[in-house]
Structures are given as C-alpha cells and as structure tokens.
Amino acid sequence: MAECGGGKGASAGGTSSRSALVDGHGRPINSIRISVNRECNLACFYCHNEGDFHGRRTMTPGEIEDLARLASDMGVRKLKLTGGEPLVRDDIVEIVQRLAPLFEEVSMTTNGVRLAPLVPALQEAGLARVNISLNSLGRDRYVRICGSDHLDDVIAGIDASIEAGLTPVKLNMVLLKGINEDEVPDLLRFAAGRGAVLQIIELEIERERISSTSYSEHHADLGRIREWLLATGRRNGVNPLHNRERYDREGELDGEALPAPVEVELVMPMHNTGFCANCTRIRLTAGGYVKGCLFDRECVEDLLEPLREGEGAEELKRRIMKVVSERKPYWNEADKISEPDNGGRGT
Prior knowledge:
Elements: E1 21-22, E2 28-29, E3 31-35, H1 61-73, E4 78-82, H2 92-99, E5 105-110, H3 115-125, E6 129-133, H4 139-146, H5 151-164, E7 170-175, H6 184-194, E8 197-202, H7 213-218, H8 223-232, E9 234-239, E10 244-249, E11 252-253, E12 256-257, E13 262-267, H9 273-277, E14 281-284, E15 289-291, E16 300-302, H10 304-308, H11 313-326
Parallel strand pairs: 3-4, 3-14, 4-5, 5-6, 6-7, 7-8, 8-13
Antiparallel strand pairs: 1-2, 9-10, 10-13, 11-12, 14-15, 15-16
C-alpha cells in the first residue's frame, strides 16, 4: 500500500505532460474533484453522496497524492476537495499540504461545521478558497435540512475564512421548494455584508429517480430566480465550468439597501444540455475510482487497487484516458453539444 508520494505506484516514473485532456465531445478536462471520505457530521436529506456507488475503501494521504499527481501530470490545473465532509478527516491538513504544490488552485467544499479552528492551518497548507454550505439562516429550517444544529459553527467558519482571505468564499444554497425558497433575499444580504458569493444550486437527482416523491416535493426550478435577477440585477458573464450564469445585485432589496454589491451564481444542472456541454471536470471517488460524471455508473475505472498492487504511472494514466475518452454529457440531445453560452437550458 502506497503511503506517500514517490511510492512504488503512480509517482514512480512516467512522463509529465502538460497537454490538456480532451474527451470525445471536445470538452477539455482541466479540473478534478476528489472525495477524500464518505463520512459526514451532518445528515442533509438531499445529499447525493457524490455519486459514490462503488465500494467502501478509503485512500491514505499518500494514495490521494499519488493519484492526484497523475491528473496534474496529464494537464489538470485545478482540484476541489470534497467528501462526505472533508474536515471530518483528522489528516485533512496533511492532504492539502501534499496536493497544493501539484495544482494552480486547491479549493474545498465543506459544510463548515469544523472549519473555523482549522482555517489557519488549511491556509498555511496551501488551500486557496472554500465553498461553504448554507441552506438557511433560520435555525429550525437548518435543522430540518441538515439534521442537527450547527448554524453558529458554520457562520463562524464563513467569517474565519473571509478574514483569512480564503476568497472568494462561495456560499452554497440548495434551493428547496417549501423550505427555503423565500430566503434568497436574506442570503443575499448575508453574502453582501461579508463580501461572499451566493451560489444558488438546483436540487439534482439521477434520471431514474426524477419521479420520486422526495424530488417532486422539494425540487424548485431556478428559472424564476433567474428571471428576477435579469429584471433587478446585471448579468456579468458566466463561470466557464458548466456555463453557470453570474449576476451582480446591488441597491435596494425589498425596500432595504444592500450593504454592498453581491455576486450571485446559478447552478442549474437538471435537463440542462448547456451545463453538461461545458463540464470540464472528472472525479475521483473516496474509494479511488475515477469517473467522468457525478451520476455515471458505467464510465468508471478503478485506480486504487492497481496503485496498491504496484501498477506503474503510464498504465494508471491509460485508465484515466479511457474514462476521459468515454465520458459523455449526462443531459444531451442525441449527444449533440449546445452552444457554450445558450442563456439557459436545452439547445
């Protein structure tokens, strides 16, 4: 079992090519999302478990480094750490320290519960920025969504991150019908007052579960939010990853002045060919499987077991290339790719 970078597996030998990976649909792969664990200290009812359908293995810090180095050598420039909840791992600072030299940017998605006291060490280790889940500012609603009350801890983590400069801090709000739809103005004020970005995220689910009761009860279409932002704010472009629309909102909000201008980013994945057409990310699950898409159960290759068995870097890269070459848009129209900036869903 490889325990550190430079062990018997991926880090031994191999070339270091910075040429970009491109899949069969012309999408360059420039980022990777790595789940470092499955465990979480919250129980959010909408959690999709990072699409982790394979096994129960756990990677060591050295194994994560070895596999991340492969992606870096193949031209991947950005890495986002996630879980489960990544800060549940006692060795998360070590993991960040190992990975930071390999990429232009290492960021993290976290629920924020354990973030505040770890911010100084994470920043020193090389963490560039954070996305923090904040679905509600109401304590009862927060508990309903997340299963327990850690709202004060999360807000402390947000403030500590902003003060330390882990910016732009993005606040991830999953819009949930019947629960927090009316809180968008409150979250906007909160984000504006702290200089954070509000990222409003559509509840997503696999095709096979769209008819489920949970989805029909809680899925809220972001189209109404988009129309409101178009009417009251200013569109300032898109995030190239997934073609996510960005808006600036300033001035008055419900008769009260915002403390500062605030940026809003919309994440609208469901039935959205434009979202998938602009996906430039591959994923590494907590069990060490590389996959081409969150919900893909077929375009998957095991990297961890071959690494542990001493398979060389070039063979492991071949496995990654296989996933990249076979990945395809989850939402598509006969596999046709829509224009990069289609202003919404569909082609």
